[in-house]
């Protein structure tokens, strides 16, 4: 409790008994913040060029003494506002103010670069993790893409089974989904296509057995020797 009283002293003016709270000097604040590299450069002109910050609760304002003025100069501003502190430093200590702005911009640029690097590193790690992991053979996405290759490309477009061995097509599918594992030509030829044939054959049997009437269309033609086929 005593340490708290030592940090903030209560002063009273002799005229109107207005309560003023004296905050710790900016030098002490900067000493505490100096342990963090990102906090070595003060972010406001008040913290950079002023000390002895005082708060006037009744008038809702604060004030601080300029560190650079030869004659002690106290600047006042509304609570939470630093425009008067900025204006004083810019107008009366232009060179120091410009140097501080340059340092502040460099810190912001470094912070922005570090943030971009973190984001890039995050996505790089995410992509690397995706490349090293693959869908299980029963994964819905693996099944969806494998079925689409057979139904849309091989059956409907009439592309050869060897398309799954083409490096260009393999690279294309890696772009579509890095986790997809390409189905081998052997699997298509011995398992996938025969399985689809059996399913269609069974469906056709069921359809024909349930039909009341069955119509057949024949395409008969003859060659030059008038032989019918």
UniProtKB/TrEMBL annotation:
Protein name: Uncharacterized protein
SUPFAM superfamilies associated with the record: Hermes dimerisation domain (SSF140996)
Low complexity bias locations: 33-43
Location(s) in or outside the cell: Nucleus
GO molecular function: zinc ion binding
Swiss-Prot/TrEMBL keywords: Metal-binding, Nucleus, Zinc, Zinc-finger
One Gene Ontology cellular component: nucleus
Family annotation (PANTHER family): ZINC FINGER BED DOMAIN-CONTAINING PROTEIN 39, ZINC FINGER BED DOMAIN-CONTAINING PROTEIN 4
Signal peptide location: none
UniProt-annotated stretches for the region Disordered: 25-44
Domain of life: Eukaryota
Organism of provenance: Rotaria magnacalcarata
Transmembrane segments: none
Keyword Cell membrane applies: no
């Amino acid at each position: 409790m005593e340490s708290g009283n030592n940090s903030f002293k209560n002063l009273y003016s002799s005229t109107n008994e207005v309560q003023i709270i004296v905050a710790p000097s900016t030098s002490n604040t900067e000493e505490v913040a100096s342990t963090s590299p990102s906090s070595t450069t003060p972010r406001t002109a008040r913290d950079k060029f002023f000390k002895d910050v005082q708060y006037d609760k009744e008038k809702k304002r604060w004030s601080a003494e300029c560190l650079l003025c030869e004659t002690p100069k106290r600047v006042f501003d509304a609570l939470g506002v630093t425009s008067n502190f900025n204006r004083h430093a810019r107008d009366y200590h232009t060179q120091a103010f410009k140097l501080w702005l340059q340092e502040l911009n460099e810190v912001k640029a470094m912070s922005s670069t570090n943030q971009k690097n973190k984001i890039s590193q995050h996505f790089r790690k995410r992509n690397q993790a995706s490349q090293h992991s693959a869908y299980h053979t029963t994964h819905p996405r693996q099944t969806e893409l494998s079925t689409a290759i057979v139904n849309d490309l091989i059956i409907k477009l009439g592309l050869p089974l060897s398309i799954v061995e083409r490096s260009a097509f393999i690279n294309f599918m890696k772009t579509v989904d890095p986790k997809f594992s390409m189905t081998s030509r052997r699997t298509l030829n011995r398992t996938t296509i025969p399985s689809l044939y059996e399913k269609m054959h069974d469906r056709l049997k069921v359809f024909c057995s349930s039909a009341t009437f069955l119509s057949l269309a024949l395409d008969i033609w003859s060659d030059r020797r008038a032989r019918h086929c």
